Amino acid sequence: MLSTAALLANTPPQLLPARELMAFTLASHILLVPFGVALPLITLLMHHRALRRDDAVALQLARRWSAVMAVQFAIGVVTGTVLSFELGLLWPGMMGRWGDVFGLGFGIEAWAFFLEAVLIAIYLYGWRRLKPWTHFWLAVPLPLTALMGAFGIIAANSWMNTPQGFRLDAQGNPVDVNVRQAIFTPMFGPEYWHFVVAMFMTAGYVVAGVYAVGWLRGRRDRYHRLGFTLPFTVAAILTPVQFMLGDSAARAVFHKQPVKFAAMEIVWKTDTHVPEYLFGRLNTDGTISGGLKIPQLDSILAGFKPSTQVTGLTSVPAADRPTAVQATIAHWAFDIMVTVGSLLILLALWYAWSWLRHRDLPRSRWFFRCAAIAGVACLVTVECGWITTEVGRQPWIVYNQMRVSEAVTDTRAGSLWAMLGIIMAVYVAVFGAFLAVILKMRTRWRIADEGSASARAALPPESDTPYGPRSEPEPTAAGAAPGGGSDRTSSGAS
């Protein structure tokens, strides 16, 4: 067996900075993905409630959420574009050889991106310019485009995990591509639904968490109650569903990527009656330090019986499997996901129990404290999910077909480290601007809701858009707004 030092000696020097650069940009971009995928639907649910019940508070929430959605989309354009360029710049070996096989997924994502941009523009434009239900129905395709974008990305990633839909010629190049098979790979279904539900859960808990903080600070009006209840209900309903989908996805990995599963569960030797380790660290000699050992549980979880055989890392040569450090990273990421998911189920049950008994929110401040941090915990699990997927697949960039070291660029390592520093500085500025805009919007909305007339007058004038309140126009002699127009869609929504 090759030692870890020997494996590192055989890797090109530019591999580490290339991986660090890709990891940083992906980890940054994925924080925005839940809102790009799920916030359109959550906003439309609130918008629909507003129109059906003639609810001015619900309409105000929907309008403000649409503003946040637009700002988030703009930031996602920046981070997503950087990722697209990095695929070609950092991994030309993969894109040059395999792009014709799995590149359609990226094409689908690009089309979805442009459609989503157009639909968001129409949605924002229509707040004061379209009839209420016309405005709503024109926005209905918006969540579908978000799901289509996720479809394209997961199709590409699932192909990298379980590549199919081609055959290799004498030179080892893919030919006779079957597009349908290349998109609908064995891991596509489990990975796609697990990902989509995770995005809706995360967005729901994050949005609800904002209003939970307001609730804890004493702002217990209907605005905060409704802003908390709808997204939290969506997330709470999906939490047990996600737990089952996650279990199904892990079992799919067990069958389709047994070495990755061995890394996720730090299983060293192929065996039956394999114990489950909660956390713990895998050593290079196969021993495990720390963690909580539960006898036979890993075999039971994998195949529903203790006699299930679980493939170990030593079933393949050391050069074809994750290192002990990589396996430990994938294992910890997987265990954090499972732990957070289990705790969220308890939170969802607490919410359901209170609603069924009292038709009301739980009265305990501890519930709202937990709800306030649930969104942050979900963002952590989203990061952990991608760490598990990518690190557990090492050393393959295309599973069992191409190594990461074979796909990396030949650009000098020093240039890549410099690029990483520049990207980090740019991202700090971009995310800082994003936070500043959101806080500015929040301030204006709070002044509109709670401030005095003199405080509102001190604000700079604002155009008639969804991005915040505007001062009420002075009445004309006829008692009508200038221009004779009427606000048909936003009663109380400014």
Automatic annotation (TrEMBL):
Family matches, as Pfam families: Cyt_bd_oxida_I (PF01654)
Membrane topology type: Multi-pass membrane protein
GO CC annotations on file: cytochrome complex; plasma membrane
UniProt entry tagged with the keyword Cell membrane: yes
Cross-referenced InterPro entries: Cyt-d_ubiquinol_oxidase_su_1
Single annotated GO MF: oxidoreductase activity, acting on diphenols and related substances as donors, oxygen as acceptor
Keyword check for Ribonucleoprotein: no
Transmembrane annotation, as ranges: 27-46, 67-89, 101-124, 136-159, 192-214, 226-245, 329-354, 366-388, 416-439
Keywords: Cell membrane, Electron transport, Heme, Iron, Membrane, Metal-binding, Transmembrane, Transmembrane helix, Transport
Region (Disordered) residue spans: 451-494
BP terms from Gene Ontology: aerobic electron transport chain
Family to which this protein belongs: Belongs to the cytochrome ubiquinol oxidase subunit 1 family.
Protein's recorded name: Cytochrome ubiquinol oxidase subunit I
Species for this entry: Streptomyces lunaelactis
Origin organism lineage: Bacteria, Bacillati, Actinomycetota, Actinomycetes, Kitasatosporales
